[in-house]
Design goal:
The protein is an alpha/beta fold. The protein is built from 12 helices and 10 strands. Helix content is 46%, strand content 12%. Strands 7-6-8-9-10 form a 5-stranded parallel β-sheet, with helices on both faces. The protein has a 3-stranded antiparallel β-sheet with strand order 3-5-4. It has a two-stranded antiparallel sheet with strand order 1-2.
Length: 355
């Protein structure tokens, strides 16, 4: 450090420390000032080292934690006790830090994906809402009322359009709620009869929505590109991958099962799947935006299909309806089994009475 810069730095520090109540640090600067090292401009080597030693000694004595002494060794002067009471020395307590606990509190929730650490997508809804508890306010918050530009407007969706704002079609959420409840009724009825439900959502960024909705109600899903001919040419496309039945005879081909209900979350990209299901009279449920003809599906749900949160809301409501249908199917199966067992017991009692 240059001697002039060092002298200026010490001069500023002396002026700042002159009014400090710390007696030790003030005395150290007085001692350093009496030596005249910072005012003569001499001794950039040894003189500066002596000045730094004096300053450090004063700071060390200033921040030193006092130890408790016996009452007999304490001075009896009133001035010393008053100084100590007015200017207590700082005390520092070292507490051990649990590093693992601290890291768990700081790091977010992660999951392993593709060999890398990626944040786990959190669901916008903590619990699956039912169709009866769903309100228009929830649909509005999910952004289901926003349609496409008026330049992409399909005339067939006019009954579901409330109006336009800044060139964007606004969907009437009253129709959305009504059609969503009707679709939930159909989904619940199919699940109650033990039917096969297929969720199709192939848009990028919505694959986790499709998978979570299907797994929550023990249904099937297609989260990648739809393979043409999966329904119309199932023997060639799906047949080789279909497991054979236990009682199948040698030479018999495995019979693939077709779904009883198809739920499409993005119909624009899956027109082929909708046409295949329609050809085999399979009912379809789809989210139809203002650029989609709602007549191509059996049960349309007029809503925004570009909002991830909105699509997740619709998928969770339909999955909840399918789950309720599965519960009713299980209860009906248990009731049927109990009735069958009771009938068998009654027949055995009647037969023993005849003997």
């Amino acid at each position: 450090m240059a001697p002039s810069l060092l002298r200026n730095t010490f001069r500023v520090a002396q002026q700042a420390m002159a009014s400090s109540p710390r007696a030790g640090l003030r005395q150290s600067w007085v001692r350093a000032g009496q030596t005249g090292l910072y005012s003569t401009g001499k001794g950039a080597g040894q003189g500066d080292d002596d000045l730094l030693d004096a300053m450090m000694a004063g700071m060390d004595s200033d921040f030193k934690v006092p130890t408790s002494t016996p009452a007999s060794s304490q001075p009896s002067t009133t001035s010393t006790s008053s100084e100590e009471s007015s200017d207590p020395e700082p005390t520092h307590v070292n507490k051990p830090v649990d590093i693992e606990k601290r890291l768990k509190a700081l790091l977010p929730e992660y999951m392993s994906y593709g060999g890398k650490l990626a944040p786990k997508p959190k669901s916008a809804l903590s619990n699956n809402p039912s169709s009866n508890s769903l309100t228009i306010a929830q649909l509005l918050a999910a952004g289901l009322h926003l349609g496409h530009s008026t330049s992409l407007w399909n005339v067939a969706s006019m009954p579901f359009v409330f109006g336009t704002r800044e060139g964007i079609s606004i969907i009437n959420l009253e129709h959305t709620l009504t059609h969503l409840r009707r679709a939930c009724t159909v989904t619940k009825a199919v699940a109650r009869q033990g039917g096969i439900i297929l969720f199709i959502g192939t848009r990028e960024g919505m694959d986790h929505v499709t998978i979570d909705a299907a797994k929550s109600c023990n249904a099937y899903y297609v989260a990648s590109k739809w393979c043409p001919g999966t329904i119309t040419n199932a023997q060639e496309i799906v047949g080789p991958h279909t497991p054979r039945l236990a009682d199948a005879r040698p030479g018999d081909l495995a019979k693939p099962f077709r779904p009883d209900l198809v739920i499409v979350l993005n119909p624009i990209e899956n027109m082929i799947a909708i046409k295949e299901a329609t050809r085999f009279n399979i009912p379809t449920i789809a989210i139809t935006d203002t650029d989609v003809d709602p007549r191509i599906v059996s049960y349309p749900i007029p809503a925004n299909d570009d909002s991830v949160r909105g699509v997740e809301l619709v998928a969770k409501v339909l999955a909840e309806a399918a789950k309720d249908g599965n519960v009713l199917a299980l209860e009906a199966s248990k009731e049927m089994s109990r009735t069958r067992i009771e009938g068998r017991v009654d027949r055995m009692k009647a037969w023993s009475a005849r003997q």
